[in-house]
Amino acid sequence: xxxxxxxxxxxxxxxxxxxxxxxxxxxxxxxxxxxxxxxxxxxxxxxxxxxxxxxxxxxxxxxxxxxxxxxxxxxxxxxxxxxxxxxxxxxxxxxxxxxxxxxxxxxxxxxxxxxxxxxxxxxxxxxxxxxxxxxxxxxxxxxxxxxxxxxxxxxxxxxxxxxxxxxxxxxxxxxxxxxxxxxxxxxxxxxxxxxxxxxxxxxxxxxxxxxxxxxxxxxxxxxxxxxxxxxxxxxxxxxxxxxxxxxxxxxxxxxxxxxxxxxxxxxxxxxxxxxxxxxxxxxxxxxxxxxxxxxxxxxxxxxxxxxxxxxxxxxxxxxxxxxxxxxxxxxxxxxxxxxxxxxxxxxxxxxxxxxxxxxxxxxxxxxxxxxxxxxxxxxxxxxxxxxxxxxxxxxxxxxxxxxxxxxxxxxxxxxxxxxxxxxxxxxxxxxxxxxxxxxxxxxxxxxxxxxxxxxxxxxxxxxxxxxxxxxxxxxxxxxxxxxxxxxxxxxxxxxxxxxxxxxxxxxxxxxxxxxxxxxxxxxxxxxxxxxxxxx
Length: 535
Known about the structure:
The chain has six helices and 30 strands. By secondary structure, the chain is of the alpha+beta class. It folds into three domains: 1-47; 58-139 and 400-453, CATH 1.20.1330.10; 154-390, 6 Propeller (Neuraminidase). The longest helix is centred in the N-terminal third of the chain and has 55 residues, at 48-102.
């Protein structure tokens, strides 16, 4: 390219140098800006695509950082709740100790009243902790709405047998219920969810059955005790049973007791686990025995329709009147409360000390049995059904807008990345222990013990669930921390200044600017001298 030094109006050399000087000055100032700000993209023109990517990464980074804080808040919330639960568990253990103390007959009435006072105060302490445990103003241990059942039992149809339902027995190991129907000489099996299947055929039309602790079912024909294995294999277990209604029960040692009739008087035959008749229990008390049941201590209880009494027979054979003016079919729960279906079809609960409470009425109720958690099953001889009477149990409803059962944590930088923390309600009402009465000898203390055991199991389950949720949140925190580091590293490579590179650029452009400035001055001098020489 040729430039003339002789032009006066246009200094092409100077303009060209000035252009490069401006360019290098601009680049030098940008290098200074990047070094001073620490950011290599200070405006969109610096790197259009990089700015867009960096902005999105910044959004993710800041969102992730807040999600980590949210998750840690959730962990702290669970820790706060668990602290309250731990204290309530300790209180329940103390209440359990007091109930066991009250069960000892060395206590006087005054002693029991003082124990009751302490139990009542401890129950208040549970409610205080449940209602006052908070995190940032949110209640943690009284979530939802408790729908108490007080002492109300609820009745529903559990299964329709299709034929007359008579003797029933609950298998404590499998949860299956077995039902005799003498009208078709069959035994039916009913699963825990109410599915009915035929289990075995019977002979003789007798109406009762019992189950040992191995799941073998026993019933009777005219003269024999029949054993049916869990697989449905039938065999004769005992021979020589004589007339009677053949109602039966079994004790904890697998001895079977069956009612039979001799010379117009009823008696009870005891059959050992090897099938032999070992002894007979008979008494002038007995006239027309209806049913027999055995408690956990080996005591027999028999009801008599003629004398209208329920008798108690101790393991050593002592017979006494347990309840007067009541008879019916019998069954025990796991804490030795006796349940009776009276002639009026009332279900009556009797504590070991003889305190009676009517809990339900089942039309045409025939036989009765109770499962491990206190639910009562009653066969009906006309309706062909088995009715279930559910033990009182409070329900926790999730319809309290001010205190829902779950809390939602935002555990990610984006919409929908949430975690639900399932909270608890462990007030005394929710645990079913708002009333624990052991103040009088006639009240069965083991009723209260059963309630407390259920409450402790309930709390342990809920505490385990909270612990599992905390572990999940800690895992989420670790994942978010890793993601935060990786996102920050990526953003840094795009947005942050490479100091070494920009210092080199700064030095480079400083030299070029200084050189351009000197050259601009020299070119002006050269042109002036050249033009003057021509003149």
